[in-house]
Specification:
Shape: elongated
Distance between the termini: 84 Å
Number of helices: 16
Low-confidence stretches: 237-249, 263-290
Helix content: 40-55%
Number of strands: 2
Amino acid sequence: PEFKKLAQTQIGVRILRQPIVENLFTFIASSNNNIRRITMLVDKLCGKYGQKIETEKGAFFTFPSIQMIARDSAVEQTMKELGFGYRARYYAKTVERLVQLDDTYLENLRHASVEVAREELMKLSGVGPKVADCVLLMSLDKADAVPVDTHIWQVAQKRYVGRLTGSKSELASMPLPSDKQEQIRELAQKLSAFKSPSTKAYELAQALIVTLFSPYAGWAQGLLFSDDLVDSLDPTAAKPITKSRPISKPKPTPAKRKAEEPQTIPKQEHETAAEPTAKRTGLRPRPASS
């Protein structure tokens, strides 16, 4: 029932089959970064190493191949100059590693299991579990790969943990796979113990979504992520109302009261009444009109 609703609200959401190197290098840049800056860095990478294409709408650059980047004998230094910071070392090591391997190495991961392909990708510098799962899902045809971050952990907590660990009436409304009911409830129970994200919580959230929606858990995650993102950006979404208590202002002490009293500044014979204020504030008095 939930995905029937998502099919109406998330029309057009698709899992892309992106070129492997482009997807891999883009996600290496994504760690501790935002979309705007990732886009800027990728544009710089293409401008430096890609092939220039002139069009009626201006010049564009292709995403470079591993071989095109490897022509640079100082990849790490170049990437630092482009603004990649500490990630520059990741790119240099990954390019070096992929040059040593067979040209079909990444393509052949399509024929490996999710577990083997993930393990192989994580041998590359700068590739952790999330980056590996993004490449598996969006480049290597692994529809059961579920990239997990804070958003997906929150989705699992908000949509499933409470219902799966709640009353029998709530469980009855969820058509769980008959052969996996106990496993799903056990995962939900373990995940309910985590009130903040952590590596273990991410692993449990991933396992829960995979068990619920295999063999298309990655596709399901995409719809859930999109729906959650839309909700978080909706300015009309209901927000909790908190009552604010009036803050009582402390009564000033006698010493403070005396300090706050206006001071009388003696007027010098050669000064006008406005000049002392002008000296304190830096403003000059307006001349009297004749």
